[in-house]
Design goal:
heterodimer; A: mainly alpha; disordered N terminus; B: mainly alpha; Four Helix Bundle (Hemerythrin (Met), subunit A); elongated
């Protein structure tokens, strides 16, 4: 295949390996399978702890995608993108969890029945 | 900080950086895209908060247990997880300067994304057919808004990825197309993470609670 003008050569002679991606994919499949089995097949855990375990498994999937697929540890210059990410995640979880918390107040629940 | 140690593969040679980071004009766009992802997260945070609050408000209509089809959302999950992997392989091919495999993996990712969207549309049409419309209850309004917003993100991502594929086909792997391939895949992996939370908070929790 003819290489168009302006095409870049591959990086510095050495080839990047697919190992990291395969490990990432396997991890995401395993974490997903554990979540599905716990929720749908086993029914061993009571609902409260089960939801906590499922949320922890989902949080681990964030780490898998960020590290293995999104190359969050690479980049050009200072890791400003990590600051964006940490703030974004903090606000996202704050909005969701504090909404659940405040809407579960007994006084409020009594009013809406 | 650990992030700094990996900033470049080889600190002595600038060419050892991954292709998409070699031109500062391109790497600043990648930084900007991370900022976009942080704000998009807030959008989904608000929709998840709404869903969690009104989840039980079914108004005598369909409940999550009656509505959610296990084989359906299991297949959707499998397609999206796999497409995130093949998207990653297209980034790998880009970094290795292999245009043929880059285009192949982008095409496979698009096909898997289309399969995901196909099953989601089938699911929504099936829900509406049994009377579970967006107007039926607060639960269903929040459900369709949250899952539909993710689905429209995926649909936009498919068009975007197809346009990126065309640019790689026409121009080859340049500093600019390398950055575009990297960014569209960042977006795709982000949507995979959002889906992980949808199947956890909406589908799996809906089946057990």
């Amino acid at each position: 295949m003819a290489v168009p003008s302006g095409a870049m050569p591959s990086s510095g002679g050495h080839k990047h390996k697919a190992t990291k991606y395969i490990v990432g994919y396997a991890s995401s499949l395993v974490l997903t399978a554990i979540a599905f089995l716990l929720a749908l097949v086993k029914h061993t855990l009571p609902v409260g702890p089960l939801v906590v375990v499922l949320t922890v498994l989902a949080a681990l999937q964030i780490v898998v995608q960020l590290y293995f697929f999104m190359h969050v540890t690479e980049g050009d210059g200072p890791p400003f993108h990590s600051v964006f990410l940490i703030l974004g995640l903090l606000f996202t979880f704050a909005i969701a969890l504090m909404s659940v918390w405040i809407m579960s107040f007994p006084a409020f629940m009594a009013q809406v029945g | 900080m650990a992030v700094m140690e990996h900033a470049v593969h080889n600190p002595t040679g600038i060419d050892e950086k991954p292709l998409e980071y070699r031109d500062p004009n391109q790497s600043v766009k990648i930084l900007g895209f991370w900022l976009f992802l942080a704000t998009d997260m807030l959008l989904f945070g608000c929709l998840f908060a709404t869903y969690l609050v009104v989840r039980t408000h079914t108004d005598g209509g369909p409940t999550p247990q009656q509505l959610f089809d296990i084989p359906g959302f299991t297949l959707e999950t499998f397609f999206l997880l796999t497409s995130s992997f093949t998207g990653g392989l297209s980034t790998l091919a880009m970094r290795n300067g292999n245009r043929k495999w880059l285009m192949t993996w982008l095409a496979v990712t698009i096909l898997l994304g289309l399969a995901f969207i196909g099953f989601e549309v089938k699911e929504f049409v099936g829900d509406v057919a049994v009377g579970a419309t967006m107007q039926r209850s607060a639960f269903l309004s929040a459900f369709f808004t949250l899952v539909g917003t993710h689905g429209s993100h995926v649909s936009i991502g498919l068009v975007w990825m197809f346009l990126t594929l065309l640019q790689v086909a026409r121009r080859g792997i340049t500093k600019v197309t390398a950055r575009k391939v990297f960014v569209v895949n960042l977006y795709w992996h982000f949507l995979d993470v959002v889906w992980v939370f949808i199947f956890t908070i909406v589908y799996l929790s809906g089946r057990v609670m």
